[in-house]
Design goal:
The complex is a heterodimer of chains A (about 180) and B (about 575). Chain A has about 180 residues and is α+β, with helices and mostly antiparallel strands. Chain A contains four helices and nine strands, in the order E-H-E-E-H-E-E-H-E-E-H-E-E. In chain A, the strands form two sheets. In chain A, strands 5, 6, 7, 8 and 9 form a five-stranded antiparallel beta sheet that branches. Chain A has a four-stranded antiparallel beta sheet with strand order 2-3-1-4, with helices on one face. In chain A, a hairpin with a 2-residue loop joins strand 6 (about 110-115) and strand 7. The longest helix of chain A is centred in the middle third of the chain and has 13 residues, at about 55-65. Mean pLDDT of chain A is about 90; it is low at about 170-175. Chain B has three domains: about 1-175, Thiamin diphosphate (ThDP)-binding fold, Pyr/PP domains (Rossmann fold, 3-Layer(aba) Sandwich); about 190-350, 3-Layer(aba) Sandwich (Rossmann fold), CATH 3.40.50.1220; about 355-535, Thiamin diphosphate (ThDP)-binding fold, Pyr/PP domains (Rossmann fold), CATH 3.40.50.970. In chain B, the strands form four sheets. Chain B has a six-stranded parallel beta sheet, with helices on both faces. Chain B has a six-stranded parallel beta sheet with strand order 11-10-9-12-13-14, with helices on both faces. Chain B has a six-stranded parallel beta sheet with strand order 16-15-17-18-20-19, sandwiched between helices. Classes of the chains: A alpha+beta (about 180), B alpha/beta (about 575). The interface of A and B includes residues 13, 61, 164 and 176 of A.
Chain lengths: ~180, ~575
Amino acid sequence: MQTIVAYVENKPGVLNRVASLARRLAINIDSLTVGPTENEEIARMTICAHTDERGALRLEASLEKLVDVLLAENISDRSVLERDLALIKVAADQQNRPHLMELIKVFRGRVVDVAPESLIVEVSGTVDKIDGLLEVLRPYGVLEMTRTGRIAMTRGNDILRPPVEATGPVIKSPAA
Amino acid sequence: MKLTGAEILCETLTRLGVRHIFGYPGGAILPVYDALGKSKLHHILVRHEQGATHMADGYARATGGVGVAMATSGPGATNMVTGIATAMLDSSPVVCITGQVSSKFLGSDAFQEVDITGITMPITKHNVVVSRAEDIARTVREAFLIANSGRPGPVLVDITKDAQQATADFDWDACAPKLPPKRVRKIHDQVEFDRAVELLNSAKRPVILAGRGIILSGAIQVFGKFVHTSNIPVAMTLLGIGCFPAQDPMNLGMMGMHGEAWVNTAIQEADLLIAVGMRFDDRVTGDLRTYARNARKIHIEVDRAEINKNVKVDAAIIGDAGETLANLMPHIHTRDHGTWLSHIKELKGDSAVRDIQSLPDSGHLYAAHVINDLWKTTKGNAIVVTDVGQHQMWEAQYYHHNEPRTLITSGGLGTMGFALPAAIGAKFAKPDAEVWVVVGDGGFQMTSCELATIVQEKININIAIINNGYLGMVRQWQEFFYDKRYVATPLVAPDFAALAIAHGIRGERVTTRKEVVPAIESARQSDQAVLLDFRVEQEDSVYPMVPAGASLHEMIRRPNNPLVETSTEP
C-alpha cells in the first residue's frame, strides 16, 4: 500500500482527473479522501493505492503533470500519522448493550447515537484499529457502516505545504 | 472595450500570433465563425474534423509553434479525437477549440451535445469548458501556454454557445494567464548530475539515443557540439530523425524495430546509453529483459514521469534537453573511442556504401527506390510527411534528413490517415518549403477527402502514393507470423490518378523505375499539387525487423534481394 498526498485546485472536475489518471495507469485506489485546506482555493488529497514503489512514483510524477495538481508526494516511507474515521451501526438490545459499551471503550470509540435496537459508534484511528473494532462488533450484528478513508500527515518538521508562488511555465517557442 | 465572446476569441487568437485555423463549422460554433469572417484570421475549411487536428499538428511540427483546430460540438468534436491522441503521443502543441451547447442545456442530451472534455481527458495535456464570455481570453491564453511549455501536448477548449454570444469587457492586460502555482522540482540534482558525468567520462562503448525532445527543446546546435565533444555515436528514434545530420559520420541512423542491424547491435553491445529526449518506447527497446544488458544508462528528459518507466536508469537528469546538455558540456572529456567506432564500422560492413541505385533494374519497382529517388531528386531538402506503415519505415531508412522538422510522421499513436492533412498543415506553416506526402494506398484512402481542401486552398504539395495493393505492414506481419494468411489486407483502391484528376489535381501513375525521377522532377516543377501513384512490388517487406516482443538483436535480416542500405551522401 502506498500513500500519496496531493495539493490540488479546489474546483470541479479535479477529482475526476486524479481518479481517471489512476485508472489509466491501472493502479487500484484503496481510498481517496479530499477536503479543503486553510486556503479555500486549494484542496488536499490523501490517496492510498494498491501498488508498489515504482507504481507510486509513476502516479506521483504523473499527478504533478496535471495542470490542477500543485504538488504530489509519496509519503509511504516517511514518519506518518494516519487516521481513518468510521461510523458503525451495530445491533444492540438492553441485555448486551453494557457489554458492547465496554468493548467500544477499549477501542476508544464513542457511542454517538442510541436507539432501542441499535447504537452508532464513532471511532477514529489507524485502519488496523478500526478493522479490529469491526471484528469484535461483527458477532453482534453490524447493520451499517461508513468510513472516510485515510487521511495522513507527516510528523514533526517534515512539513508539506502547497506552493504559493505562481512560477508559470516557460514557453520555448513563439505562440504560432 | 465590449466584445462578444466570439469576437474575444478571434481577437485573442490574433494577438497570440495565430494566422491559420483549420476547422469545420456547425451550429454550436457558428457565432465564432461569424466573428472569424470579420477577422484577419485565415480559416482553412477541412473535409473532416480529424483532418483539422492533423493539419494543426503538422503545422505545429513544422514550426514548433502552436497549431489551432476548430470544430463544432458533438460529432465535430468527437471526430477530433484521433487527431488529439496523435498529438498527445508525439508531444505536439495543438490547441483545439470546440463549440458546446449553451450552458443551460449542459447535461441534457441536447442536439449535438457530447461531453468532449470527459472524452478527451486522457488524451489531452489539459482541457477545459468555458461557459462565460469573460473567461474566454484568459483560458485561451492559458491553453497556448500549457500546450507549448515543458513537454508540449494538445489542449482542448470547449466554449458554450451562450459564452460565444454574450458580451464582456475585453482587456488584454487584465486577462493574463493565471495558472495554478506549481512546485518547482529541483532540476539540477547534483548527485545524479555527477554520476552522469562520471559515467560519460569513463564509458568505453557509449551510444547516444537521440529523441524528439532535442528538436522540441531547440537544442540542435548544443546537441551537435555535445556529440562531437564527447565523440559518441548517435542512434535516433523515428521522431528524433533530423535532430542530427544524417550525413554526419557519427550518426548511426534509426534504432529499434526497423533500425539497421548495426545500430541495434551497437546498442546491445554498448556499455553506456545516453538517452536524450526519448522515452524508451517498446518499438525502440524490444524485449526489456534483454535490452542493452551490459549498458549503464543516463536519461536526460523533461518529463519526470518518463524516468524509470520502461527502463531503469543509473542517472536521471530531469530538465530541458538543451539546458542539460549545455550544463554537461564543460564536464565532458573528449575521448577517442576509436576501437568502439571502428567496431561499429565493421558491423556496418560494406552495406552502407552499396547503393540501391547502382543495382541492375530487375523490372520491378521497389518502394525503397522511389523514396531514395525522392531523396536524391529533392537533395534531401523537402519536408516529407509520411503516413504509417511500410512506406513510413522505408522513408526513415532511405530518405536522409539533415535538418530538424523535415520529417513529419505519426510515431507514438501510429495514425493512418495522418500524412495528407498533416502535410497541408506543414505547407501553411512553411509556404516556401517543398512538401511531399509519402503515403500508402491504405492510409491515403482514410483521409483522401482532403484533396478537395488542397484545391480549395490552392496549395502546392506533392503526393507520392506507395501503392502495393495491400495494407503492407499488416501483410508483412501476416507473412512472417501468420503463415501468409492474408486476412483483410488485400486492398482495392480507386485509380488514384483519376481520383486526383476528378478533384482538379494533376495525377499520374508510375510503374517502372525509369519513370520515377522524371515524374518526381515534373511534379517539382509544377506550381500546383501533383499526385503520383507509384505501383510498387506488392509483397515486399521492411528489413531488418525485430519481431514484437523479441530482443533487439534478434532481427530478421534482409534476404538476399536488391534492397540494401544506402549511402547517406547523394
